[in-house]
Amino acid sequence: PYSEFTFDDYIAPSLLQIDQNHIELNSASKMFCMTGFRCGWAVGHEDIIKGIRKVKSQIDSGSPRFIQKAVIKGLNEYTSEKKPKIVKEIIETYEKRRDALMKGLNEIGWKTEKPKATFYVWSHIPEGETNSMDFVKKLIDVGVVLTPGAGFGKFGEGFVRFALTQPINKIKEALERIEKIIN
Description:
This protein has 183 residues and is of the alpha+beta class. 43% of the residues lie in helices and 12% in strands. Helix 4 (85-107) runs parallel beside helix 6 (168-182).
């Protein structure tokens, strides 16, 4: 679902570039801001898609028609390889938020890698912190909520995830609060 949310002219790779034994799943949730509508699609080799169609037809009756029509309208905005205006506008919003967060983190001494895609920033916890859960609890005490990397499994420990879902003024406010904890 995040393949369209790329920044700085980065193009996300596709499994379909590898060979025909893969499928690629996508949804309208992120691309068209339709979270909760539960409408998606699969792209891949015709035989695999036929099998998925058989299974899917026995699981449920599909999304309501009005949702399908909205998704079709969104997909029809793709008239070339370029992203349509509505998608570009959404991406620009997240890119500005990402840039504000990255600038602020650097200014308070928390070095982290600038992501090429998605509306999340995944970062190592600051030096001196021992684990993601304890660090996140400290942030909650000052009114900032991040997702501890440990919630994503053992390889996530030592990381936190920022969501770029708040406006820039809220991101800056969060950065001021974070600075109190790490400095």
